[in-house]
Design brief:
286 residues, alpha/beta, DegV_domain_contain, Rossmann fold, DegV_C, Hypothetical Protein Tm841, Chain: A,domain 3, 2 domains
Length: 286
C-alpha cells in the first residue's frame, strides 16, 4: 500500500496560498517584524506594502515560523497523511530549517525535513519535483534522498540596485557601501547552494545583466549539459517590467520559451532591497 505523503514548503519558495492549493502542496507563511509589528508573507504582509515600507526606511527583520504553529500544522496534516516532507528555505540563510529538524524528532519519523539548500524559484522547483515524485509512487525516504542528491543542481545570480540594504543587513562593510554608492557600482551576487555570496561587480545595470547572463550560460553548458536540460528563471524585487524584459532577452539568447518569472521572497528582499534583478536555472529532474 502506497504512503499518503504531504509536500510542504514555506513562502520563501514564492508559493503563496492560492497557488499552493492549485498545485496540491502546503505552505507555511514566513513572519517578518516591521517596525516592531509582526506580519506574515502572503497573509497580512504583501510584497507591494513590504517594498513601500522598506523604501520609507522601516526597520524590517526576518523571523521564524512559530514552533507551536508549525507543530499544530503537522499534527493536523498527519490526521490525513501518513508522512510529511517539509522543504524549508536553505539552512545557510535561516535558522528555521534547524528549528524544524528539532521539532520533527517529536513526530516519530513521520515528518521529514529536507535541507534542500535552496530558496526562491529553486525552492519552488524542489517542491514541485517532490510532488511529482510522490505522484509517481516514490516513498517519502526515496523523495528525500532525491532532494538531497539534487540540491546543488541549480544556480542563481542577482544584481542589486543599491548597496544600502546589504550594508544594513551586515552583508558588506560601511566603507564598501559608501564606495559603491559614490561609484554607482552594481554588485552581482550568487546563490550556489546555501549561501548568498558576492560574485562580481559591474559599472552599470546593462553591464551587470551581461555579467549574469554570461555566468548563467556557462552554468547551463558546463554544469548541466545544455539548455534542453534546465528550466530558466528570472526573479526580482519590485521590478516587474525589467524582469519581463530580461526574460525576453533570455528567451532570445537561449532559444527557449521555458523562462519563469517571479518575485524574490521577502526574506531575500530584506538583504538586497527593492530593485534587485536575478536570473537562474535548475536542472530538470526525472
Amino acid at each position: 500500500m502506497n504512503q499518503k505523503i504531504a509536500i510542504m514548503t514555506d513562502t520563501n519558495s514564492g508559493i503563496m496560498a492560492e497557488e499552493a492549493q492549485r498545485l496540491g502542496v502546503f505552505v507555511v507563511p514566513m513572519p517578518f517584524v516591521v517596525d516592531g509589528e509582526e506580519g506574515f508573507e502572503g497573509v497580512s504582509l504583501d510584497a507591494d506594502r513590504f517594498y513601500e515600507r522598506q523604501r520609507a526606511g522601516a526597520n524590517i527583520v526576518t523571523s521564524q515560523p512559530s514552533i507551536v504553529d508549525l507543530g499544530e500544522r503537522w499534527h493536523e496534516l498527519l490526521g490525513t497523511y501518513d508522512d510529511i516532507i517539509y522543504i524549508p528555505m536553505s539552512s545557510g540563510l535561516s535558522g528555521s530549517c534547524e528549528t524544524a529538524c528539532t521539532l520533527s524528532r517529536h513526530f516519530e519519523g513521520h515528518v521529514h525535513v529536507v535541507d534542500n539548500q535552496r530558496i526562491s524559484v529553486m525552492q519552488r522547483e524542489s517542491a514541485i519535483d517532490a510532488l511529482r515524485w510522490v505522484e509517481a509512487g516514490l516513498s517519502a525516504q526515496e523523495v528525500c534522498d532525491r532532494l538531497h542528491a539534487t540540491k546543488f543542481d541549480a544556480s542563481i545570480y542577482i544584481m542589486v540596485d543599491t548597496m544600502a540594504y546589504l550594508h544594513k543587513s551586515g552583508r558588506i562593510t560601511p566603507a564598501a557601501a559608501a564606495i559603491g554608492s559614490v561609484l554607482k557600482i552594481r554588485p552581482v551576487l550568487q546563490i550556489q547552494g546555501e549561501k548568498l555570496d558576492a560574485f562580481s561587480v559591474a559599472k552599470s545595470t546593462k553591464a551587470a545583466k551581461r555579467t549574469m547572463l554570461k555566468a548563467l550560460a556557462r552554468d547551463v553548458d558546463e554544469r548541466f549539459g545544455g539548455v534542453g536540460n534546465v528550466h530558466l528563471y528570472v526573479a526580482h524585487t519590485d521590478r516587474d517590467d525589467d524582469a519581463q524584459s530580461l526574460a525576453q532577452d533570455m528567451r532570445d539568447q537561449f532559444g527557449s520559451d521555458d523562462v519563469f518569472v517571479d518575485r524574490l521572497p521577502l526574506s531575500i528582499a530584506c538583504h538586497v532591497g527593492p530593485g534587485a534583478l536575478g536570473v537562474g536555472c535548475a536542472k530538470i529532474q526525472h
